[in-house]
Amino acid sequence: MAMSVTPPAGDAPPASRRVPNVLGLVGNTPLVRIRKLARGLPPEVRIFAKLEGFNPGGSVKDRPALGMIQAGLESGKLRPGKTILDSTSGNTGIALAMCGAALGYPVELVVPENVSVERKKIIAALGAKIIYSDSLEGSDGAIRLCREVLARDPERYFKPDQYFNPANPEAHYRTTGPEIWEQTAGTVTHFLAGIGTGGTVMGTGRYLKERNPAVQVIAVEPDDSFHGLEGLKHMASSIVPGIYHEDELDAKIPLGTDDAYETVHRLGTEEGLVVGQSSGAALFAALQLGRTLERATIVTILPDFGDRYLSTNLWIGWQRP
Ligand SMILES: Cc1ncc(COP(=O)(O)O)c(C=O)c1O
To answer: Is 237 considered catalytic here?
Structure first.
């Protein structure tokens, strides 16, 4: 039977949005059913992916960046004359640079030198200044250097501090959680997300559990400290973020870089979705979980699209070993 290309009645997309500025486009991302990669799963297990690449800054990090900026403005810690400063593996930097440009605040970002060239260029295009930290020290090196920069001139800066700022998970509690609840008509049974700061899994998980305590909240993390999953952290070998509370999770799924990369390639060729490495990780974990269940509505987050990784190993020469 030929597959219909038009949405079934009642599934039409919402009317297009008109907003006062770019920040009004953050959130309200679509949820898409993953069908082909989910073939072979029990018939009553459904997998859905939330496409965070539809945010205007191109990733899930637009939500916490905007939330932290709003909280800063409300508390008066961010006010005219201040520069926004943070350490970021890339997506938060892009999101903060976008917010700074839209609101008229200068932005400085500490970024590991090996972050993809596309990200560096997008940050520059948004007018932010980049301070490079040692690639070998990863995101923790960026955190340390950022602390030094702040200590040299604390009055000059507003530091959102995504690893310790409650406004990070709060943004997901206010937006990502309710969107998923509504998009699944309250049928979600499992929520999985990769962990970087932990903001997505903590805030969204807390909201979903408040609506239905039976919802299982699961974190996905690299299985080793040396990994190729940009945006994700191996907690046991990292500076643990202050907003990350492992005791609130139902489970944590470790997974390998090759499984994530293979899933990214399959998402492109079989689902028509070109996404980033951490999306492959999240979806691989969701499929693995789905195989162990009889009936479930599993929702996971695809944090960004793949165009900002085209110059990385994922697309240059990677092959399944
Ligand atoms: C590509 C990507 N995936 C996943 C994450 C993890 O999100 P969170 O910081 O909410 O745990 C990030 C965060 O930096 C990211 O940039």
So the answer is: no
* Residue 50: strand, helix, or coil: strand
Residue of minimum CA distance from atom 7 in ligand 1: 196
Ligand 1 mutation pick, 66, 206, 232, max ligand atoms within 8 A of CB: 232
- Per-residue pLDDT tens for 153-187? 999 999 999 999 999 999 999 999 999 999 999 99
Are the beta carbons of 217 and 227 closer than 8 angstroms?
Answer: no
Those residues whose C-beta lies under 8 Å from the C-beta of residue 146, and which sit 6 or more positions away, are 85, 86, 87, 110, 131, 133, 159
To the query of whether residue 36 is one of the catalytic residues in this protein, the response is no
Q: How close is the Cα of 232 to the center of ligand 1, in Å?
A: 6
Q: Do the strands 295-302 and 44-51 form a parallel or antiparallel pair, or are they unpaired?
A: parallel
- DSSP character string of 178-247: HHHHHHTTT---EEEEE-SSSHHHHHHHHHHHHH-TT-EEEEEEESSSS---TT---GGGSPPPTT--GG
Q: Stretch 83-96: mean pLDDT, rounded?
A: 91
Q: Is the CB of 278 under 6 A from ligand 1?
A: yes
Token digits of residue 52:
């965070």
